[in-house]
Amino acid sequence: MAVEVGVGRGGSEYAPGVAFEAMTDLVERRDLDQVYQPAEDSRLLAETAAERVGDGDLVLDVGTGSGHVAAVAEDAGADVVGVDLNPLACRDARDSGIPVVQANLTDPFRDGVFDAVLFNPPYLPTPPEDERDDWMEYALSGGEDGRAVIEPFLDGVGRVLAPAGRVLLLVSTLTGLDAVVEYAAKRGLSAEEVAAESHPFERLVVLALVPGRSTDETTN
Fold first, then answer.
1. Which of 104, 96, 98, 68 minimizes the C-alpha distance to 82?
2. Distance between CA atoms of 133 and 198, rounded to whole angstroms?
3. Residue 58: which residues within 8 A CB-CB, separation 6 or more?
4. Buried residues in 49-88 as b, exposed as e (16+ CB within 10 A)
5. pLDDT digits (tens, 9 = 90+) for 3-30
6. What is the pLDDT of residue 163?
7. What are the structural domains of the chain?
């Protein structure tokens, strides 16, 4: 799939009956309006965000979907804006009361603005021959290794963080957790696991990322 995607997960309700088997099958995850509806990953990120953002925080929810994670962060007292590449997701988020920008990842935002950036990215490893040309593909597929969207996000997210800003990134073990942590370190972001949840075929993890020295700098 194309790297330039910013569509992640999020929505107005948590669907507790969604099984992992459905998450591994892109066909089963497509719905009529082509907007990802929140499931276990959305809930874990939302709950973690609610514990780590609060009054006065300016928060960006990347890949906001229909706005579930953003709404939970807003309920915790934060001022939240969403961003999503999918125009249908932007419509749903606005209908839920979330201010949203249709754009890719953190591209349109000023430097040093956000106290927190939240992202539940597309992370399912997907062979090229299995990809489809629709909005649910953008919401689910992480390319062959599951990191085709995560890595561009990590390339740019440090730019928009305020001096004491942090990132909350949802990662699945399907994408290679160690590889994500190592890539973040190369981009000057140190990682700490702050929440996790096990499922039959994967472990969902929320990483808190904060700016520091990149591993490239420390080895030169």
1. 98
2. 31
3. 78, 79, 81, 113, 114, 115, 116, 162
4. bbebbeeebbbbbbbbbbbbbbbbbbebebebbbbbbbee
5. 233 333 333 333 333 333 434 444 444 4
6. 93
7. 20-218 (3.40.50.150)
Handedness of CA 198, 117, 160, 162 (dihedral sign): negative
Residues of the chain with pLDDT under 70: 1-33, 36-37, 124-144, 213-220
Q: Please list the residues that pair with 205 across neighbouring strands.
A: 171, 196
121 and 169 in contact (C-beta within 8 Å)? yes
The sign of the torsion formed by the CA atoms of 26, 107, 42, 200 equals positive
Taking the whole predicted model, whether its pTM rises above 0.85 is answered as no
CA–CA separation, 36 vs 190, rounded Å?
Answer: 29
Residue in the structure block whose two tokens are 């999918």: 86
CB 180 within 8 A of CB 208: no
